[in-house]
Specification:
The protein is of the alpha/beta class. The protein is built from four helices and nine strands.
């Protein structure tokens, strides 16, 4: 992950980079790739980073497999993640092995296992399962502030000190 603290401009640049690689993936740029999986209420999103944690590919699909942060269509969720994984592997011409996923805060005991199983069921080796604010802060590096995650079905606010 980036070592410097991010600004609004650099956050916007990361979003722009991701948007660009969704449209035009960057092939052959890394010896290893890391995939982030977001099982959202409105969309399932996969983001692929290279060995330097730079975005190289991404894909998403509108889906109704999660409601209020909970997986409600387990088989459908696996199918969508697997299909997106295969789509990205074809575009990058490589196998995607490693993935991490994030879950809404406070749902780890209720649904963390289901999300982990979806990611593994789609063919990934799971490297991390974090709550969404912790995952966001791994990039943002906020020392004193808040992470506000406004999603399609849930909103999470975490205060960081």
């Amino acid at each position: 992950m980036p070592k410097e603290e991010l600004t609004f401009d650099s956050c916007n640049e990361l979003v722009s980079q991701f948007e660009a690689v969704v449209k035009q993936p960057i092939k052959g740029s890394s010896s290893v790739y890391y995939t982030g999986v977001d099982l959202g209420t409105a969309c399932v999103v996969l983001a692929v980073l290279d060995e330097n944690y730079k975005p190289v590919a991404g894909a998403y699909r509108y889906a109704d497999v999660v409601r209020d942060g909970m997986v409600v269509d387990y088989i459908g969720a696996i199918r969508i993640v697997r299909e997106l994984k295969e789509e990205l592997e074809e575009k990058l011409e490589t196998e995607l092995i490693y993935a991490a996923a994030a879950i809404p805060p406070g749902t780890d005991t209720l649904d963390g296992g289901a999300i982990k199983n979806v990611v593994q069921g789609a063919g990934f080796e799971i490297t991390a399962l974090l709550d969404e604010p912790t995952a966001a802060n791994a990039v943002l590096k906020i020392k004193n502030g808040a992470v506000v995650d406004i999603g399609g079905g849930t909103t999470g606010i975490t205060i960081l000190k």
